[in-house]
Amino acid sequence: MKKFLTVLPLFFATVSPSFAASDVGFDVNINVGNRSGVVIPAPPAVVVPAPRVVIEEPPLFIAPPRLGFYVGVDIPYDIFYISGRYYLWQDNYWYRAPSYGGPWTVVNHRNLPPGLRKHKLERIRYYRDDEYRVYSHEHDHYRGKHFKPGKEYKERYKEERKREKREYKHHGEEKGHGHGHDD
């Protein structure tokens, strides 16, 4: 190694007059470690526009037992209701809002409620559609969980549940059966 280092200056001394006479350059750069002072620009911020959601009247939400949360039905949106908040999947983004009508803000997938995060959207749609067929067929006698946002619907829903509980207690039958008296 020492021999090489002593020969190297001699080589450059003998070769340099020929380099000086020509327009040929010779450069050696050796970098070890991190470059200091190099700033890598941050990627541009992605601005996600608020979704356009227009719902004329409060939508119906049903809770398929296999999901454990409410899903909006008979509307052109994938809207879900969990723990007092509404979630929307639209244009490859998740959104959250305090009301089914918004205002919607983007939410990261890892910040979704665990029940919503654990299911693939296709599976949620399958369970929703399957349960909605049951709801549509049984309509007035549907025993699953369902609601429509809005004060007037909530009051009617509460009254129906109270009536069903009284009938259940009075007749000793399963909830939802025995709407008449057999004397």
TrEMBL record:
<feature type="region of interest" description="Disordered">
    <location>
        <begin position="142"/>
        <end position="183"/>
    </location>
</feature>
<dbReference type="Pfam" id="PF12779">
    <property type="entry name" value="WXXGXW"/>
</dbReference>
<feature type="signal peptide">
    <location>
        <begin position="1"/>
        <end position="20"/>
    </location>
</feature>
<keyword id="KW-0732">Signal</keyword>
<feature type="compositionally biased region" description="Basic and acidic residues">
    <location>
        <begin position="149"/>
        <end position="183"/>
    </location>
</feature>
<protein>
    <recommendedName>
        <fullName>Lipoprotein</fullName>
    </recommendedName>
</protein>
<dbReference type="InterPro" id="IPR024447">
    <property type="entry name" value="YXWGXW_rpt"/>
</dbReference>
